């Protein structure tokens, strides 16, 4: 390695981060060492047990060295905790740590953590909790390698969200829900979200980043323009004498979110197409805090992360909820899930070695652009996270890609959203013109069945009918 050790000694942060990650320094910094024991990812939450001061078994410098040498790094452990207080009883969460990419193959395990903050009732939140994961997985081709599976995941999340929304609409109920849906496979974290339940990442560099985007009309001008262009009206609530109060809402319906699952009575321009972000943590690990807006209306991302740093996940979740209540009182349903991604050989997350960016780590974990839509983000700047994918467009044809997984010669096509096989004449390609003739040129995927094409047109305001409930 060709970095300059001599000059770096003048820079305490660089020195500490690379060469002096032993336990003594960490203890001087005053971190708590709380042991939970080595619990595999698929066990239940363990009892909190405060152990004696104990140094991490593998220093960060060793882990970085392993990565540089291309050595195989063992799978991380997950430890997690959940806490919440109900005001209306419309928050739901999902914790599933026994998923497998290949059935009966434990080496292909992954975990899912999600929060569903319902409104106007609970049916959309419950329906989504029960069906979304299966709908996402059904959109990933079988027999793929791990890397292919992770690459297919962002698109499958879009398909799964839209399919779940269509299925819920068919129930004829009017409630809606936010969704923040987190898939963790080893060091790779993929987050898909609609609405305003956030997921933040507290990296081992000590920098807190948002992995979701708030789909609130009040705060998102791009979404306001999209909703208006698709036929929605955006404005505030009018009370006596025309005084406007509260946040910007979409009318009819009065919803302040621009994306959700459900909300059949509000309008199709309230779309279920998620913002998706995929990152790969360094093998120093990190902490995710997933929570409903009851937390985020009271605490900033930094405040939430700092309020529980150094504590085990179960206690951390309780502390974040307590901190939110202390500053704001119980005004809304408040739910928090904390997930620690911990390097094998450690009992807790290694404490952050430094507070400010360091050049060496940036060189090691350089940013990989897989997507031209990648937004500027400080995550890669601090060098502890590799950004793999980010896309938030509400246009389905920008999200489903062009390659079709099925053989065009068969004459049978699988809908890219609902995964139903149909002869090609019954559907339209996302990329085709309205009068596209299959005979004139090769079929350009992805194919949508008539029902999903109808949904796509409605979401884009091309069917300006009143919202209807299909029974
Ligand atoms: Zn379909």
From TrEMBL:
Molecular function in Gene Ontology: metal ion binding; protein serine/threonine phosphatase activity
Catalytic activity reported: O-phospho-L-threonyl-[protein] + H2O = L-threonyl-[protein] + phosphate; O-phospho-L-seryl-[protein] + H2O = L-seryl-[protein] + phosphate
All copies of domain PPM-type phosphatase, residue ranges: 76-341
Keywords of this entry: Hydrolase, Magnesium, Manganese, Metal-binding, Protein phosphatase
Keyword Transmembrane: no
Pfam families, per database record: PP2C
Keyword Ribonucleoprotein: no
InterPro entries, A to Z: PP2C, PPM-type-like_dom_sf, PPM-type_phosphatase-like_dom
Cofactor: Mg(2+); Mn(2+)
EC number: 3.1.3.16
Family: Belongs to the PP2C family.
The protein, known as: protein-serine/threonine phosphatase
Species assigned in the record: Malus domestica
